[in-house]
Amino acid sequence: MGKTVVILGAGPGGIAAARTLRTLLAPDDRITVVDRQDEQRLGVSLLLIMRGWREPEQVAIRPSRVLHGIAEFQQAEVLHIDPDTRTVQTSRGSLPYDALLLATGAELAPDAIPGLSGALENGIAGHCWSLPATLQLRERLRCFTGGRILVVIARLPYKCPPAPYEAALLIRDLVEERGPGQSTEIVVVTPEPSPLAVAGPAIGEQLTRFLTERSIAVRTGEQLAAVDPRQREVSFVTGTRELFDLLVVVPPHSAAAVARTAGLVEGDWVPVALQTMRTKVEGIWAIGDVAAVRIRNNLVVPKAAVFAQQQAEIAARDIARFLGYAAPDPEVRAFGRCWFIAGRGSAGIIEGDFLAEPRPAVTFQSPTSEGFAQMENELAAWLAQDPGASR
């Protein structure tokens, strides 16, 4: 009788894991991928949508088509994970498993900041970490006639680490496109000691200089405490207060509730072993944004699609070995390469090895038109995996 692997989440990590598992398991083994949506986008796509350069349907794939012939796709809500009986309860019924892989991504938790949900609901705040919010922010920016924009990172960690800095640059780009008549101040506020602190102080200095040259101020070491929608004011843990005309925020992130009720979460995330992606519960693995993949001390692998895909390979090999197959040893990697969009026709690259000793070895290549073209080519290649995707 064949084995059953259930994958929760059809993002880049879940799809990559299903593909690798299909090459490692027997033909009669069942792979089921569950996601509440039959639609996926890369994080960079939301920035392009926010800026008005892409429409949602132009940058989406359908996992049901991508996984055809590889795995069974079920569009359903995951309701409960029972590690004792090795079953997953969904809105479409119960799924037994021999191995379970969590690739659910991170959930947004704006309620963790007093006043933030209200500010998002009434439109004085926005974000680009979900499609509905991105579309709302795009409309808000189209109507914005000038003033003070705060781009605030509420909590660490969050998915797509460069995105808030890219968002600030794209907003500046939009303001300049409208001409010199509009006066807009843009300030980025982060709890980090420097921008992208996980990449090291040198990268932080480069990014700060790059942003400052484009009239974007950077304030570090400030953690968001509350938002006052009536006064259009934010307060920070240090007691500092800042007024704004528009708040662009990175909402707090956390693991999915089903991971917490299954006893997999410590703090806000699911801790896993770097070498295998195994959780503390036998028979369950986790990858991508839901996981805390610790490298050393307090450093964890950043939450980005490129790392989720590498972790998918590690987890798939270990799952196959767990199920009794002679799969290759997992190859532990944490090499990341992210595009950094700076404005019209300009993109740079942030890349590096986060397993390098004694600290991550990361570089920042300045934005160029060639970089933007390469980014668009990579996005097109990702979309090409879905033969029915709109171009």
* Average residue-wise pLDDT: 94
Q: How many strand elements?
A: 24
Biggest β-sheet: strands ordered side by side in the sheet: 3-2-1-7-19
CATH fold annotation of the largest domain: FAD/NAD(P)-binding domain
**Tell me, what is the CATH class of the largest domain?**
Alpha Beta
Q: Which parts are unreliable, with pLDDT below 50 for 5 consecutive residues or more?
A: none
Distance between the termini: 42 Å
Oligomer: single chain
Total number of domains: 2
Helix/sheet category:
alpha/beta
Shape: globular
If you compute it from the alpha carbons, what radius of gyration comes out, rounded to the nearest whole angstrom? Answer: 21 Å
Our count of helices gives 10
Q: What is the name of the CATH architecture of the largest domain? A: 3-Layer(bba) Sandwich
Strand content: 25-35%
How do you describe this structure in short?
This protein has 391 residues and is of the alpha/beta class.
Topology:
Blueprint: E1 4-8, H1 12-24, E2 30-35, H2 43-51, H3 63-66, E3 72-75, E4 78-82, E5 87-90, E6 93-96, E7 99-102, E8 107-108, H4 116-121, E9 125-126, H5 131-143, E10 147-153, H6 163-177, E11 184-189, H7 201-213, E12 216-219, E13 224-228, E14 233-236, E15 241-243, E16 246-250, E17 253-254, H8 257-261, E18 270-272, E19 284-286, E20 291-296, E21 299-300, H9 305-322, E22 335-343, E23 346-353, E24 361-368, H10 369-383
Parallel strand pairs: 1-2, 1-7, 2-3, 7-19, 9-16, 10-11, 10-16, 11-12, 18-20
Antiparallel strand pairs: 4-5, 5-6, 8-17, 13-14, 14-15, 20-21, 22-23, 23-24
Helix pairs in contact: 1-9, 2-5, 2-6
